[in-house]
Amino acid sequence: MKKILLILLLSGFVNHTNAQETKDKKEINKETDSASNLVFNPDQNVVTEHSTTIKGQKIAYKATTGTMPVWDEEGKAIAGLFYTYYERSNVKDRASRPLVISFNGGPGSASVWMQIAYTGPSLINIDDEGYPLQPYSIKENPYSILDVADIVFVNPVNTAYSRATSKDIPKAKFFGTNADIKYLADWISGFVTRTNRWASPKYLIGESYGTTRVSGLALELQNSEWMYLNGVILVSPTDLGITRGVATEAALKLPYFAATAWFHNKLSSDLQSKDLTAMLPEVEEFTMNELLPSLSKGSSLEEQKRKEIAAKIARYSGISEKVILQNNLDLPLNSFWKELLRDEGFTVGRLDSRYKGIDKKDAGDRPDFNAELTSWLHSFTPAINLYLRNNLNYKTDFKYNMFGPVNPWDRSNDATGENLRQAMAQNPYLNVMVQSGYYDGACDYFNAKYNMWQMDPSGKLKDRMSWKGYRSGHMMYLRKNDLETANEDIREFIKNSLPKEGQSAKY
């Protein structure tokens, strides 16, 4: 037995439960030519039993961790996707229990972020605002949605422990907006079949580029796999392929600037004295009714009007009127992150502008590094490696890719916003919820609202679309208050999007 376990570890395999020991021996003998080489197994898992307390209630659950193949047209395994599947135990009616399928973004990012900091049953050790703490560890998540839904966290090819089965397989099979959607839809269908979840209400949740992914998947699952969803949750959404003009792209940044400046006390006293959500409507109204038309005029804008607009941008952004004019009323994001706290010797973060960074010199037009991402990697990377090995008993010598190599990524023909609209139009059961952090400068909250307006210009779907804002950044759940609120919003969304008994899918 000791010899078998030694070969198992050296080979990169991970099954250590008694129930799978016989299978493991066969796999080792079949696939290991040399104990010194890592051999990737695209189809294996380990099962562990756990319990946690959610909203004061003791919850027992099973975690299945491992890989499941991506098959090509001839039934050959061309990749294995690493996943963790959490199922609440002692559920009598699994058919009526919702299943949430979770993706992160990047597009080369693992699903670690939401797994151990948002909806999953375990949490990383951070302070109440999301900053790292030592020792690195995992604790219970009292706000997890596992009380109301089972969850599978999926990692696309080259993220986490997911890999192609051979270097000879064309990267174009995986690395592109539409290729990504196509193979993941097929994988989801296979996973639902294996786990016998076809009867369950199904939800997709994606964060950042994951919102591009799940928006496209909503239609692809309907059209290619004949799988119909009850809900799609977009956490910090991208532009979803919805085209912005030059003026629109420039204008829509301002409400985010205002939120960040408010957080850092850089606005005038009359604005600063208002609560954030009481102040922002004024900025949003100016953005759509004055700034956007003015930027559209370009050089034809009258000089006096240009100065008036510059003064208002300065008022709402915390950046001097001089700098605004030097940038032709369109301050680049990099410049904002460098300029806002320049006099204090700090930069602000991109994905969460509450975070501060220190550059080598105060001069320049962009920060040296992303202060928030550095902070997050500080706390997440040790935690996920410890959690998978120690808590979920998944042991391997493969590297866990927080961000894996997925370039070049083909971003052409991105119609994911339109795909999501079409999926909603075809499926009366399908609902959409958007979650945004006010201090997110990469996928800002006002652009998320703009997506909804443009995705549904007729307004016929607006009763099935909702938007929620939180006082944090890209990963709003890192702030404890928002973690609780955002998970509760998901619970309510699931509850409200489940059809009543006998309610048919029709208009």
UniProtKB/TrEMBL annotation:
Keyword Metal-binding set for record: no
Bilayer-spanning residue ranges: none
Keyword Cell membrane: no
GO BP annotations listed: proteolysis
One Gene Ontology term of the molecular function aspect: serine-type carboxypeptidase activity
Range of residues in the leader sequence: 1-19
Keywords from the named record: Carboxypeptidase, Glycoprotein, Hydrolase, Protease, Signal
Identification of the protein by name: Carboxypeptidase C (Cathepsin A)
